Amino acid sequence: MALPGYKNFEGEDWIDPTPLPKEIPPVDEVGSTGAPLKSASFFIGTHCKEYNEDFMLCKDETRDPKHCLLEGRKVTRCAVDALQKIQSQCLGEFRAHWNCLDYKNQEFGRCRDQEKPLNDCLFKAFGWKKNVPGAPANKPQIHERVPLTQ
């Protein structure tokens, strides 16, 4: 169904011709599919925490989407930066993990064997922390637990 005022041609993407305001700097899109983004999600969240919090605070101020374009661009730039860093130091481990997620219905639990080498590589290369939201504060994160049998 076409929205009023929008051109709708089958097989063609609709691009809004309205230019952004000059005070909003251009930024490339992340350009990634779901599996690589999910694989890197906890590290992007940690690496870009300050930008994400600024963006969410901005969104709470008003319902006008234009109001937070600048903060949104900073979040996008940070996510692209995190993905580039991951690929520069841990490409093999990253690719193995997101391929597993892609083939196993995006379920982290089914890709723990590929997740551990990726975590180890990123912890070693960048010293990044991985914090799973909603995990109990008084217990180790799931990736820090020692298996019962070895």
Describe this structure in words.
The protein is mostly helical and 150 residues long. Helices cover 51% and strands 0% of the residues. It has four helices and no strands. Helix 1 packs across helix 3, helix 2 packs across helix 3 and helix 3 crosses helix 4. The protein is globular and about 60 Å long.
- Which parts are unreliable, with pLDDT below 50 for 5 consecutive residues or more? none
Structural class: mainly alpha
Main beta-sheet strand count, sense and barrel state? none
User: Tally of extended strands?
Assistant: 0
Shape assignment: globular
Distance between the termini: 56 Å
Q: Please state roughly what percent of the residues sit in beta strands, choosing from under 5%, 5-15%, 15-25%, 25-35%, 35-45% or over 45%.
A: under 5%
Write the element-wise H/E pattern from the N-terminal end onward.
HHHH
Radius of gyration: 19 Å
Helical run tally: 4
Helical content class: 40-55%
Which helices and strands appear, and what pairs or packs with what?
Elements: H1 34-47, H2 49-61, H3 69-103, H4 112-126
